[in-house]
Amino acid sequence: MSRSLVLMVFVAAVAGLACRRAETGSPLGATYGQVARPAVWRVLPRSQAEACGLQPGDVILSYGDEPVRTTAELLQMQLQMAAGTRQIPLTVLRGDAEVGLQVEPGELGLLPEAERYTGSLALAAKDVLSHFGSSVDYDWLAALTGESFVFTARCGGCPGTWPGDVNRADFIGLTAHYGLALRLVYAADTNSSRGPGENRQRALSFIRERLTRGRVLLVWGNWPGTTEKRWGVAARCEPGDSLVRGYTPGWAGEVATAGPIDEVYEVEQRVLAEPDPDDLLTAVLTRAIEMGRTAADTGWQSGIAAYDVWIGRLDTVPFCSVCPDSGVACFDRLIWTLLANKESANRFLEDMREALPESGELIGDIIANNNIILAKLNGVMQSRVRPGTWENQQKLARVVNEIQLVEAALLWLYEDLIGEL
């Protein structure tokens, strides 16, 4: 089969994955609403979710005969009924059939689908592109921003917020391949005499004026649910209002910013042709190499250096110096985030292997190495070895070191594949 014919077949087969113009756009926030559904991503080992028969892919419809619309609602219901003694009926949608289960009061022990979407820039870009009338795959966006390919760690920060550093360089891939242009219209002035209050009022003024003109805005700042900065899509800022309301990961509807606003970007889209698989994959791997072998001076470390930060944390007890306990919850969230990112990277690579069969062997080697890392991460979760003692943390440090060595081998494979492309 000729290369041109292969690409035509690829575009037809995965048209829903690439960017295309749809008849009408979706409302801003629609992507966040979809992600917030109470769908099961992972059933935790030795949990009552596992005992009662919940399966990945199940969508929870009701809990205690009360309808459930979002993951947040499910968590609230579990808290409200935790003191009961009777079994609680649970209804899930499995495929096309409704299945009734019985659970005990208290935590179910599952991870919702929302935990798969750790990259808030990629999710924000997907929401905005859908609003502009384009259909685009999250995994492709996460690959272009480096979110699914490169582990990042913040020195001095809570491990539960890793990985996650993004900066303006991450916009380059979005602009080149999806026509999503982001123009900085506000940045907090940290080098002047302006205080946080004055900076916030300036940010609100910029946001309010542009929303009035119908502009689409991405906001980098403090949103509910985390003490760390994250991306969100601005929706409204009424006259006299001291808050920006919009959409951010973890919430199905509008929420208000919860602190300082650092940067605001005005978003526009230019219609482009379908991304060429060679160019797309080359851009992703080039970005992964750049991030994987360099250490930023912003407090974040990327790639190989990030694993050094992680191993260093495992040399001290407690594992997390930020959280009041030993950091078990922080560690678990870090593992699940890495699992989600690696799986996202592999889904993107599977698309590329289909589109570029002549490079299939090298792409397959990369996928195989990612699967080695996934197996090690899953092994940690199944073993139940957790931070808290020096002995446990040394065991975990050895596993992390093994993963770091595989990541180093991956960087060489990226270079080989770029050369082949």
In sequence order, what are the helices and strands, one letter per element?
HEHEHEEHEEEHEHEHEHEEEEEHEHHHH
Question: How much helix is in the residues?
Answer: 40-55%
Shape designation: globular
How much of the sequence lies in strands comes to: 15-25%
Largest sheet descriptor:
6 strands, antiparallel
> What is the average per-residue confidence, as pLDDT, rounded to a whole number?
86
Distance N terminus to C terminus? 18 Å
Structural class based on helices, strands and sheet pairing: alpha+beta
Number of helices, counting only DSSP H or I runs of 4 residues or more:
13
Walkthrough of the structure:
The protein is built from 13 helices and 16 strands. The radius of gyration is 22 Å and the shape is globular. Helix content is 44%, strand content 18%. Helix 12 runs antiparallel to helix 13 (390-420). A hairpin with an 8-residue loop joins strand 12 (229-236) and strand 13 (245-247). It has a six-stranded antiparallel sheet with strand order 10-15-11-12-13-14. The model is unreliable at 1-23 (pLDDT under 50). Among the domains are: 36-114, Pdz3 Domain (Roll); 277-420, no CATH class. It is of the alpha+beta class and 421 residues long. The protein starts with a helix and ends with a helix.
